[in-house]
Amino acid sequence: MSEDLSAVGRFLYEAGSLKQTRRTGWWMAGVRDPESVAEHSWRTALIASVIAKLEGADPARAAYLAVWHDTQESRTGDVNHLGKKYAPAGDPEEVTTDQTTGMPEALASAVRELVAEYEAKKSPEAVCARDADKLECMLQGIEYKAQGYQNAQRWIDNSRRRLVTETANRLADELLTQDSLDWLRTSLSEGER
User: Fold this and answer.
1) Beta partners for 36?
2) What distance in Å separates the CA atoms of residue 91 and residue 1, rounded to the nearest whole number?
3) What's the whole-model pTM score?
């Protein structure tokens, strides 16, 4: 007997709304059309796998945690740090419980456990995923600053200060020495900037 997947289907549509949900903190930096939560989450998952591999943690698990870390924002929106001062965002674990209601229990419990692990900040993979979240924000800030949004420096500095792992700190140092198009120049053998 197959399980009812209607709640899973609804969630997949709900998750798609994150492609249109903008990261609101960037508006304070003057960015008119900031990245979406989905765009942020994709690169965060990629970065989490890199950090975890270099830290000796499970890269697949770290990426898995990172993929799910902001899924609650389909219901709460992206509440930036200033907004949380006045109206705290919903508890991620409570929102996840609501989001997974009606899903097959094997899936629902796995998702709830992932979010709880990320929020607990204790496993090596959660630490790597959380560092990836901050490093992605810093990287996005560097890119926005290169586009002329000078106020992005605040996000670069704040994200940089919050990194925990040696790998994330070393990557941050490296990213701060590079230009956002160095990868293209290197690929085309154009040399240094």
Assistant:
1) 22
2) 35
3) 0.93
